[in-house]
Amino acid sequence: MKVLFATLNAQYIHSSLALAYLKSYCQGDFADLHLMEYTINDNPGDILYSVYRIRPDVLCFSCYIWNIEDILNLCRDFKAIVPQCTIVLGGPEASYAADELLRRYPQINIVVRGEGEQTTKELLQALSEGQALRGIAGISYREDQMVCHNEDRAPLTNLDIIPFPYEDLSAYQNRVVYYETSRGCPFGCSYCLSAAEKGLRYFSLERVKHDLEILMHSDVREIKLVDRTFNSDEKRSRAIMSFIAENQPSCRFHFEICGDRLSDDMVDYLTTIPPGLFEFEIGVQSTHEPALQAIHRRQDWKRLQYNMERLKTAANIHLHLDLIAGLPQEGYREFSNSFNQVYNLKPHMLQLGFLKLLKGSPLWKEADRHGYVWQARAPYQVLANRYISYAELAHLQLVENLLNRYYNRGRFVTTLDYMAGEVYAGKAFDFYSDLADFWEERDLFSRGHRDREEYTILKDFVLNRHPDHGATVNEYLKYDYLKNFTNHDLPPGLDCHNPPNRNEIQRRLLGDPAVAALLSTGDNGEEIPLKVGRKGLHLEYFLINPLNGSVAAKPLPLLFYYPDNRPPARVMVANDIIY
Fold it and tell me: Are 5 and 60 in contact (CB under 8 A)?
């Protein structure tokens, strides 16, 4: 019996841990197992032919909100050309809609509900031996035109019996490798499917260290731990982090953590982690207490704020914070307050997400109570509720667009600090909201824009809405642009204050010892010949000092140096050298 495990990832860089686990768990009992990962951007016809070439007897799909529609279409087409194939769906988007899927889609034969390893193995054994499906816990299926639901399967108590999921890590060189050290979550947030699963289960520390050692020596570029709250057990999480740091891997690690559960000792330890090794994703979701209570989420905002400020000061760990718009009890004004509080922590990335009413989640079952209106098809994004209107959520999507475009790409740091902190007096949400209005008024969202144009548009916005700040913002935009681009031709609309003999001055600077020292060292401390380093040098004059905001008595010369001719630039004040 030939079995194909398949899914459609959101992007090529992603990979499927679920399928890797299923294949490894079933590997010893079935010789002809295949695993194929596609993306939702692939041509459906190409995917269909790829599956057809394998000609599986059993086709198993892992289903999520981002791929369920494409998978259902693929199942319909494949069943039409290979009607004898048994099609099995699993994953969260199938688990909680088993009855509906089997009744609406005759091409689907079986749905695996919940944790899949044991269930899938028993199912494949039954199919290979022609046995009845009645005794297999955790499945729904069609029998004699009737939809049958067997009893739920209890989760595995000993996770260590699941084999290491990856056979050939060379296939993941340019992709994110996913790994988990636990299953379950200590929280019961009502919008999340984790609320339907009680308790936490852990792989043993010995097993985790064994697996991580393999992963760290595989030359993959990023390992993302999908534990829903990695630091649920602080002693254990610190032991794993210490093991990683001691091995000095070249890859980076991404953890989903609860920011307010970090103790002082843990934060002290985290400040010693080598820069670039760890990334933290922290789901703040909201700072509005009634909203947190409505979704049954416990959060100590003051503690979270304190911990984030300490980690931001240490500047060694990338901090990614999340917000969710559309939560119960949180209207537009309350969300703007949450946005401001989280934004003012200045994380490296701030994700503005939108609530999705996932099938099987407690909030999905309480939708009428809060007046929810949501998309009828995946991803089931909320359109409105009693507390926030569709128009307000639509405007927040414009804000999200600009947040990603200007803030999360990290190319406007100095300008945005000035706009949010000075022009808008700490109310960053008002800035992005006004900027969204400006973009909408000029129909800018409907057109593509080069990176350079974004600087020009922001300057135009300031001149239109805050003309008194135009000259200052011009200098900050120049600084941000030159810091992040090696093209020294400033974007249209940015004023230049260079003297006519700027090129001659820059050539003279090459003879200064301080400038020569700047040019002679690469990013990794390697020595660079002066004739090579000088190619990455640019001199620009400013009317204010963008490093501290002070007004320059006379035009301030700054040297931008791009090691290996790549941004970001190192910046040196050349005032004492030139004047």
Answer: yes
Question: Looking at the 3D structure of the chain, how many domains does it have?
Answer: 4
Q: Residue 222: name the closest of 318, 361, 292, 294 by CA.
A: 318
Cα distances (Å, whole numbers) of residue 411 to 2, 134, 308: 50, 59, 22
Q: Domain containing 115 — which CATH number?
A: 3.40.50.280
Q: What is the pTM of this model?
A: 0.92
Using CA atoms, how far apart are residues 91 and 105, in angstroms rounded to an integer?
Answer: 17
Amino acid at residue number 344: N
Indicate the DSSP class of residue 550.
P
Ranges of residues in the chain whose predicted pLDDT is under 70: 522-525, 530-532, 579
What is the reported pLDDT for 223?
96
Q: Give the whole-angstrom CA distance, residue 136 versus residue 5.
A: 19
576: Cα separation from own chain's centroid: 44
Using alpha carbons, select from 54, 51, 48, 58 the residue that is nearest to residue 22.
58
370/505 same-domain check: no
Report pLDDT for 30. Answer: 86
What single string gives the DSSP state of each residue in 137-191?
TTEEEEETTEEEEPPPPPPPS-GGGSPPS-S-GGGGTTSEEEE-SEEE-S---TT
Q: What are phi and psi of 435, to 5 degrees?
A: -65, -35
Q: Are residues 182 and 319 in the same domain?
A: yes
Answer yes or no: is 154 within a domain. Answer: no
Same domain, 252 and 340: yes
CA distances from 346 to 312, 322, 350, 432, 477 (A): 8, 12, 8, 15, 19
Whether residue 522 lies inside any domain: the answer is yes
Q: What is the pLDDT of residue 230?
A: 96
Please indicate, yes or no, if residue 489 is contained in any of the structural domains: no
Considering the domain architecture, whether residues 11 and 131 belong to the same structural domain is answered as yes
Name the residue range of residue 368's domain: 159-389
Of 32, 3, 21, 34, nearest to 162 by C-alpha is: 21
Residue-level pLDDT at 579 = 64
Question: Residue 525: what pLDDT?
Answer: 66
Question: Residue 519's closest CA among 489, 560, 484?
Answer: 560
- Is residue 301 domain-resident? yes
Q: Based on the domain organization, do 133 and 86 belong to the same domain?
A: yes
**pLDDT attached to residue 199:** 83
Q: Is residue 338 domain-shared with residue 374, that is, in the same domain?
A: yes
pLDDT for res 510: 86
Tell me if 9 sits within 8 A of 37, measured CB to CB: yes
Say yes or no: 508 and 430 in one domain: no
Q: Are residues 143 and 24 in the same domain?
A: yes
